[in-house]
Design goal:
Layout: E1 17-20, E2 26-29, H1 32-60, H2 75-81, H3 83-88, H4 91-124
Helix pairs in contact: 1-4
């Protein structure tokens, strides 16, 4: 056969396979178990962030105590008004500010590079 040959994974490499293309890019194929564990870890991370947000918003009275009223699609409103939390300067307020922005930043730091890798793999393969 004239097709590209893949070497079998080494014994200590786990459940994923690596293949190297001619341009030096290494593609990693994850097993279903690894993919499920990654998804579970992402869900647990986001649930933990939401729990911290809920706890801190209860302690600080956010958003009602800061005069913020919202009925639908409130997250952009909360992000724009979150600097009000820093004016009080308490530990709970600063932690809540960080938790509000972490709910946006942490998933973005995970999903944007993953999306770029998937698009690159789809274009090349």
């Amino acid at each position: 056969m004239d097709g590209p040959s893949e070497q079998p994974p080494s014994e200590g490499s786990g459940n994923h396979q690596r293949s190297e293309r001619s341009d030096g890019v290494v593609a990693i194929r994850l097993s279903w178990l690894q993919l499920c564990l990654l998804t579970f870890g992402f869900v647990v991370l986001v649930a933990g962030e939401i729990a911290v947000y809920d706890y801190l918003s209860g302690r600080t009275g956010w958003p009602d105590a800061y005069g913020i009223e919202c009925r639908r699609r409130c997250w952009p409103v909360y992000l724009l008004n979150s600097p009000r939390l820093l004016l009080n300067g308490g530990v709970d307020e600063i932690a809540l500010f960080a938790a509000i922005w972490a709910l946006i930043i942490i998933p973005a730091l995970i999903l944007i590079p993953l999306g770029k890798k998937l698009r690159a793999a789809r274009r090349s393969g």
